[in-house]
Amino acid sequence: MATIDRQAATLALAHALAAAGRGLPVFPLSATKLPALRSPHHGEQPPVHCRGACG
Prior knowledge:
Layout: H1 2-21
């Protein structure tokens, strides 16, 4: 499983570098980073998958 995670991270890095090379803004993230703003659906029962409809 760790190999798949490493491959995914490597692929994500490659995409980020390609985007940066095209002048698009990118910022580093890691698996341990959390968003600065918590999901408005945090703690809802049953878990709700956000569809972006609440704005």
